[in-house]
Amino acid sequence: MKKALSGLIILVLIFFVGTALYVFEVPPFNAGGPFIAKREGVPRSSGTQEELPDFLTEEGVSRAKTYDEHMNRGQLLTENGYSALAIAEFESASKMAPTNPAPLAAIGKIHLQSGDTIKAKLSLQEALKLDQNNIEAKISLGKAHIAERNIDEAKAVFDSIQVHNQISKYYQGIVTAFTGDHARAKTLLNETINIGGDPTITSYAQKYLGAYNEFDANQGGSNVHLWTLLARSYNQTEEFEMAIPLLFDVIREKKNYRDAWILLGYAYLGTEKYQDAVEALEEAQKLDPQKAETLFFLGLAYFGLGDLQQAAANLELAKNNGFEPQVQIDQKLAEIYLQMKEYEKAANSYENVVSLNNEDVNYFIKPLWIYIDRLDQPEKAVALANKALAAHPENAMSHNLVGWAKMGTDNLVEAQESLDKARELDPDLDAIYLNYGRLYEKRGDKNSAIALYKKAYEMGQGNSISTAAADLYNKLIGKADEVDYAVLKADLLHQ
């Protein structure tokens, strides 16, 4: 459940305190985001049984790899989320070059990304014993201290960095802001922008400067107001562990500060502390029961806890109270109703999504599947597939969807015409061959269907198309209980 929210990324929410005060950044439709799901690029399990991805397999590996090969391979594995394999490569590199801090710094960074700050600090401290000025190790060590809310220790690390580095300057600026030296923080954040290099870091620095400018524009503002503005910036830049204690100070001073409770709930969502998020957001709800943003976040928090009924109820209330952008709520409601097996509601929510945002043809796939496989409403499937085709007339997937839908109405001639068009546009689209298999199975041509399911299985390379092809293949040959697809795999190996 905690891995279900699709995704990172940006949705704008505005909370008002006098004038528009709080601008949040949350994931856009159908993308991975800061809540519930781990963000893209975060390493996978650090267990030792990860399977080597196909693109990294080698032929003739009897030759021992060089230090650079271990490092390059470790970096590639890291980028693709294979943390245990990456660590093994960096450990091998470290054994070959025991005085080089780079492998240890890389290992520490992986542990930090996976949330294991203890192991991260151990590796990073070992790297710094080899080179006390290693910039990568210092930045990661400072971030590890932030993750543990040891802000003074983090500040000491970043203050010790002498090189002109944008990332270190940025972190030096935001920890300095946390400690209350706001004049110095502004200077450091301006230096961050002047150094340049990473547009994301530049935009992040601008958010904090924007908070200071907003505070300065309201002459005579209180410290509580400034802390809240900075907490908003920490949330916007996903530095939730600095936002949380700052918001504790705000609420201690002003317990009836609705937007501080909302910010706190948002920060807890970002750290996957869903019960804490619910409790903070319920405090905000007591102060303003109808605020759409509070209800939206409550829905996400209950979803994180696995309470689908409460999640759906709060999201529906947020929708009724005018939450924007509406597509975010409809997309999440569709996922929830699908998990609850309330297929009519799921289909309606997905239809709302594609009516609001049809930019990606893949948005049409799940509602089409519901109409075909769960509700047995092929006419609605055809209507929806035609909408996909109208929005994306030159996309192979659109024609593939039309072919799939028309099979449900037994219009096999037109179904094949659509699939043929899809194959003409993109002969490498695996989903086409899955639907060709369905088509030939409907025609009673078992041998052709089997061959096409095999092709879709191979082309899918383990994705959802591959899984569906294996299921249909096993059912067709009377082996529906072969959940590990052993029959198909063995058959393919002996061709």
User: Could you give the distance between the termini?
Assistant: 40 Å
Number of helices: 25
Structural class: mainly alpha
CATH architecture call of the domain at 43-49 and 67-161: Alpha Horseshoe
How would you characterize the largest beta sheet?
A: 2 strands, antiparallel
Key features?
two-stranded antiparallel ribbon, Serine Threonine Protein Phosphatase 5, Tetratricopeptide repeat, mainly alpha, 495 residues, 25 helices
Helix-strand blueprint:
Blueprint (H helix, E strand, L loop, with lengths): L11 E6 L1 E7 L41 H13 L3 H14 L5 H12 L3 H14 L4 H13 L3 H9 L6 H14 L2 H14 L3 H19 L5 H14 L3 H14 L4 H13 L3 H14 L4 H14 L2 H13 L5 H14 L3 H14 L8 H10 L3 H14 L4 H13 L3 H14 L4 H13 L3 H15 L3 H13 L9 H8 L2
Antiparallel strand pairs: 1-2
Overview of this structure, please?
- The model is unreliable at 1-50, 52-56 and 480-490 (pLDDT under 50).
- This protein is mainly alpha-helical.
- The longest helix has 19 residues, at 199-217.
- It is globular.
- The protein has 25 helices and 2 strands.
- It has a domain at 43-49 and 67-161: Tetratricopeptide repeat domain (Serine Threonine Protein Phosphatase 5, Tetratricopeptide repeat, Alpha Horseshoe), CATH 1.25.40.
- It has helices at residues 67-79, 83-96, 102-113, 117-130, 135-147, 151-159, 166-179, 182-195, 199-217, 223-236, 240-253, 258-270, 274-287, 292-305, 308-320, 326-339, 343-356, 365-374, 378-391, 396-408, 412-425, 430-442, 446-460, 464-476, 486-493; strands spanning 12-17, 19-25.
- A two-stranded antiparallel ribbon has the order 1-2.
